[in-house]
């Protein structure tokens, strides 16, 4: 289970790179 910091980083990256989120 990823830490909250890791989850936050992933969410930020998804906001910056929606293409990555859709790709996978």
Q: How many helices in DSSP terms?
A: 2
* Alpha-beta classification: mainly alpha
Number-wise, the strands total: 0
Specify Rg, calculated over alpha carbons.
Answer: 9 Å
- Whole-Å distance between the termini? 18 Å
Helix content: over 70%
- What order do the helices and strands follow? HH
- Name the overall outline: elongated
List low-confidence stretches.
none
Could you tell me the strand content as a percent range?
A: under 5%
Tell me about the largest β-sheet.
none
| Overall pLDDT | 77
Describe the fold and architecture.
- The structure is a single chain.
- With 24 residues, this protein is mainly α.
- Helices cover 79% and strands 0% of the residues.
- It is built from 2 helices and no strands.
- It is elongated and about 25 Å long.
- The relative contact order is 0.16.
- The mean pLDDT is 77.
For the structure shown, list the relevant keywords.
2 helices, mainly alpha, 24 residues
Topology:
Blueprint: H1 4-16, H2 18-23
How would you briefly describe this protein structure?
Helix content is 79%, strand content 0%.
